[in-house]
Amino acid sequence: xxxxxxxxxxxxxxxxxxxxxxxxxxxxxxxxxxxxxxxxxxxxxxxxxxxxxxxxxxxxxxxxxxxxxxxxxxxxxxxxxxxxxxxxxxxxxxxxxxxxxxxxxxxxxxxxxxxxxxxxxxxxxxxxxxxxxxxxxxxxxxxxxxxxxxxxxxxxxxxxxxxxxxxxxxxxxxxxxxxxxxxxxxxxxxxxxxxxxxxxxxxxxxxxxxxxxxxxxxxxxxxxxxxxxxxxxxxxxxxxxxxxxxxxxxxxxxxxxxxxxxxxxxxxxxxxxxxxxxxxxxxxxxxxxxxxxxxxxxxxxxxxxxxxxxxxxxxxxxxxxxxxxxxxxxxxxxxxxxxxxxxxxxxxxxxxxxxxxxxxxxxxxxxxxxxxxxxxxxxxxxxxxxxxxxxxxxxxxxxxxxxxxxxxxxxxxxxxxxxxxxxxxxxxxxxxxxxxxxxxxxxxxxxxxxxxxxxxxxxxxxxxxxx
Length: 467
Fold this sequence. Notes:
about 475 residues; alpha+beta; seven-stranded mixed beta sheet; seven-stranded antiparallel beta sheet; 20 strands; about 30% helix
């Protein structure tokens, strides 16, 4: 009887994840939060929110407080960069296709857990504050680790511990599809839980994300407001979701860096590529990067992003080296991004960006896409360099290493030239049509009519052959 009740409770929880998306009727951004524990009776079935209800920050605090006060003192936080209900609907085997399920370990954990709580729709501002909330409730600092590091730890269940495992997410198919990424994250969850099970350590686990991977909009509201929106002024562009990375020396800010997406991939011999999603580690409230060893002066700037241990790589660093030089032809100073270096495990991969990434010293540099593999702006220094095994992709990349006056960038020099391929095609097509029109007009102007006509009553007109 107890097994039947547990299975029905787990089935209800999974259904709430898979089908709550269909009942959402508000234009807002939500992130699911999944909580389970090795202890029983932390929540009651009636505590779960109704389908379609968006959990607020205060309600989330109540749920987490109950888990911490009544449950184990060891809390696992699986913090993914992005997550939405769409991910469970598309990749969770929602229509009975269990072979396409990207969350088998998470589903098994919910089935085996004595206590579990699924919050399908949580205001993403509240979910992004989960790390700070858990830190406050447990009164301890979070420990960021990898599964390999956790295997070496010996946890004491009587001491409060907050263990945070960062999980990447990407919507791009350049390196890895979203389903493969989610399956890899699920394997990490299964590996961590198996380690805790082998050590017989009681725990409470939380799986959530910093922000939604997709924005849910209600179509009816968009259609209803269409007529009025056409008469209104165009909406103002949304502000940047996170401030740029800023390095300060003894005088003040001197280096700024911003990107919408920082992604790298390392192809190892005889193994699958390792993806590094560094955006959330670099920007925003969950950033975990050190700028130690960065330097800047009037002619040389060096920005060092030290991430520590990432994906099993020790002392992982990304370094941007910029130099300023005066060019007599333009009668001004220009800066170039000479090197982009990746240091890991005592090795170094170096990319040359000086050929394409440059701007006047008083400006910043901006480019929609900076990659090393497709229309590359970053190229390895040599064919034998370790950089040949790396693929780098920066989206909406902007950097400034000189004449920084505050937390905002100076005027940006964009990598896109004024004459884009589309403009050149339009100009050439127009020129071709003008040439055809000119040739046709010239031919029409060369036509000559007869100035003499044959009179049937008179003598025939004789036209000499030499005329």
